[in-house]
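Suppose a classmate hands you a notebook page containing two proteins, each written out with its sequence and a corresponding row of structure tokens. How would you begin to make sense of it? This section walks through that situation. The first entry is reproduced here exactly as it would appear on such a page.
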Amino acid sequence: MTNPDSAASAASALLPHNQPHSKTGLQAQLDAQPISPLQWRVIILCWLVNMLDGFDLLAISFAAPAIAKAWQLAPQTLGVVFSSSLLGMMAGSLIFGPAADHIGRRRMIIFGCLVLAISMLATAHANSVGQLMLLRGITGMAIGALLPSLNTLVAEYTPDRRKNLAISFMHIGYPIGGIAGGWLASQLIPTHGWPALFWLGGLFTLAIVPIIFFGLPESLHYLLQKNQPAAKAKAVKIARRMGLTIQSDIFNIAAKKTNLDQASRQTLRTLLHRPWLAPSLALWTCFFLSNLTLYFLLNWTPSILTTAGLPASQAMRAGMLLNFGGVIGMLSIGYLSARWSLYHLMSSYFILGGLFIIALGQLPTSEYLLLGFTLLSGLFSLGGLIGLYSLTARLYPTTTRATGVGLAIGAGRFGAILGPSAGGLLISLGWPMSNYFALLTLPLIAVAGVLWWVKQPTMSRHNN
């Protein structure tokens, strides 16, 4: 597809045709003009928060070999520790995703950063598996609260023609945080122990709270939907800083839309009935299956390679390259989606990701092949997942967008929780590495199949 806004075209196959597509004067201006410094600030700050999310969540995977050795933990126990973070993420997405539609994206981001910083600092003092699981669960809940609001805020501050690229850029922060975590772990843990990694993550996250408080504006869409004098004044002030002209009919349109949507706004019932049910179920299935494989890889790769006899330094490099591959994948799908169908790209990425995971499971004797397969596994697996984020952000209207994104991410957490736990079980059973890596490719192939089904004309007619 050569349409420069191909992601919007891809998402429109899922959108019900009775969805209003007319834009307010404010949105039309946003689409017509270059991205302003304020919009860039929103994108960069959300990127920075997401980078800290990646650092804080993936810190446990780099600290795991040292924790397992110090506490004599079995693989099953370590798998449950990994899953506790992801269980918290699922709960955070499901609970706080809808809440952001009521209290605002900015407030939710500030709240999430505060909780995340406190939980990371407390994790440095954990001295039992129970404490570690509880604190990792709280960490995950904070990250789950942040992700829907970050995703939604970037989408709402970006012109349609740049949404895919902006969302991809924001999500690049996550694997970059993982890369930073892997490098810092290799420097800190041998000399200062594993708690030092959590101390550093907590302090970094705490330091960004005042920056977010003073530098991040609230969503214009959210302020307009509130239809309150104070919210209107804030919207006018923010719009002027972006060089936009406020027109009186914008507030009238927002007020009418708010009244029409009041009965069903932010409710799960809206998304579980036609015309939203079929596309929502398809997206939730894709998030579940892709996260199952991805979070197994992200959590277990350093530990598996260490157990397989590789030096700790090489296992750390592999974990870093898995995340670095994700950075390339996110950039590439954001760039290529402006030229080809987002559905076709995501299907291709997930299939290729599965093939390279199989190759990685063969544990090549060449270090270059091992690291290359690790990088390519991350590139295509994470690249495909970022395509799902882009599609989801474009699917829902403003009044249910954070709810819809939050529920999609929450559905993915079921797979994310199952992946590390199942991995711990398979490892404890003594399965060869090649067998369970091959098994992990099946969910990615299934995602490609769901995306193909969603794209078919019969599915589009059903949605309509």
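The notebook's second entry, a different protein, reads as follows.
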Amino acid sequence: MSESNRVRIAYREAGSVEPWQIIRRTGDALTAGTETVRSDEIRSDRQRSGQKATTITAGGTLDFEMSSGSFDSFLAAALCTDWTTDVLTVGTTTKRFDVIKSYLADDEHIVFKDMEVGQLSLTAESGQKITGQITFAGREVDDDYDITGDTFTEATTGLIFDSSNNLNGVTVDGMPLSGTVFKALGLTINNNHQTDQAVGEKFQNHFKGSCDITTTSTIRMASAALDLWRSSTLGNVPVALAFNMADGNGYSYAFELGEVYLSTEPPSGALDAILDLSADGTAAVDSTGEMITITRVTV
């Protein structure tokens, strides 16, 4: 009998024979979905003929809680680049992984091959864990993989990040907002993958498109929050948004988006409520030629 908590997921560079790196996660929806066609033949006995699979879609999502050093490879893959002197910016190099999903209680293993990161998101809400989700798109599945001879590197063990202890330094145009605070912050990197399928093949191919980077935020209502609506939404004046994540032991990430266009509106009143302003942001190339810069400090 399968046991739900004995499912292990690990990855390595596509085509590599290096040890598999186990991934920390809270859940996943990695699968090989199928599309089927059924015969429309007309039978005089009113019965129907069978169906067959014509498309196999490899991929899905993986949910995680942010921690230091655990998802650096996927951050780089989401931006289609490599860490260069501990810095990431948007690149053009497609990064692919092989991802293995093991049902340990049954000694069954499935490998999703040539997996690209279509989207990566991070979400931080006040008093909560900092969570994320990776969306993968693959090109092939080995549905009965033999792990004989393979080795696995254990996952990192550092404490997970939360928005109270590990998120700080949120600034707009280089300064904290005056008289108010951020209550929630989110970041999404979307590579706008396009998909097609060749005749004679069941698996789909995936091709990255442009890089969209968007933000979400919740700000306690105050004059400074309303000024963002006036200047950025009504006046089309972008802001520079920055924030830091750190584990308290020397490992940190600094996120900088130099040109973010905000879409927001004044909040409505309510009975016995704290008014918040919700702002959606769209990043653009700034004066330095970058949409986002992520700087990592490691121990």
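A careful reader of the second entry would note: The chain has one domain: 7-36+53-297.
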